[in-house]
Amino acid sequence: MDVTFQFDWQAAFASIPHLLPGIPYTLLISFVGLAIGFIIGIIFGLLRISPVSWLRIPAITYIEIFRGTPVLVQVLFIFYGLPQLLGGPINALVAGIAAIAVNSGAYISEIVRGGVQSIDRGQKEAGLSLGLSRRQTFRYIIWPQAFRRMIPALGNQGIISIKDTSLFSVIGVGELVRQGQVYIATTFTALEVYLMVAMLYLAITLSLSLVLRIIERKGLAGQ
C-alpha cells in the first residue's frame, strides 16, 4: 500500500499561539532553578576544595549523586517521592524548579571548583603579601579571575538546563512540550507541532548563547 505524507506548514504555524503560553513556564523554571543552583554551586564548589574533610566529603557526595543520576529521575523523586516523606503534595512547578536547582547546582559546583583551582597559586601569595586577609584575597583577586573563566561553562550549563525542562511534562508542568502534547491530542499533527516546539527551544537557546557571548567578550575585555 502506497502511503504518502505531506508536511502541513499551515498546521505547524497554527500551533504557535498554543505553544507560546509554555515559554514563560520554561523560562521561569530555568532561570529561577539556575539562580538557586548557582548559589548551591558556589557553596558546594568551595566546600569541595576545602582542606577540612568533614566539609569536603558531604560536598563530594552531593555532587556525585546529582551528577550521576538523570534529571528525570530527580524530578520524579521530588514530585512523587518527597510528598510521602513530607506528608503533603508538592506543586509541579516547584518540583521542576527544585530539580533544575539541585541538578545544575551539582554541575556548577564542579565549574566553580575548576575555576578557582585554575588560578595560579602566586595570585593568592601576592594578595597575602600585600597585607590582605585570606578572605579579602579570595574576594578581590581570586574570585573575579575565576568567574571570568567560568562564564563559558556556566553558559553551557544554562542551555542544558533550559533543554532539561522539556522532561517536566511528565509531571504536568505547562512548559513547551506539555503545551504541544495538549495541542496534538486535539489536532493529531504531531510532526508539525513538535517541529515548532524544537524551533522555539532553538530560538531560546540561541538568544541565550548570543547574550553569553557578549558577556564573555566584555568579561575578557575587562581583564
TrEMBL record:
The chain crosses the membrane at residues 25-47, 59-82, 88-108, 193-215. Pfam families: BPD_transp_1. GO terms for cellular component: ATP-binding cassette (ABC) transporter complex. GO terms for molecular function: transmembrane transporter activity. Keywords: Amino-acid transport, Cell membrane, Membrane, Transmembrane, Transmembrane helix, Transport. Residues 23-212 form the ABC transmembrane type-1 domain. GO terms for biological process: amino acid transport. Belongs to the binding-protein-dependent transport system permease family. HisMQ subfamily. This is Putative glutamine transport system permease protein GlnP. The lineage of its organism: Bacteria, Pseudomonadati, Pseudomonadota, Gammaproteobacteria, Oceanospirillales.
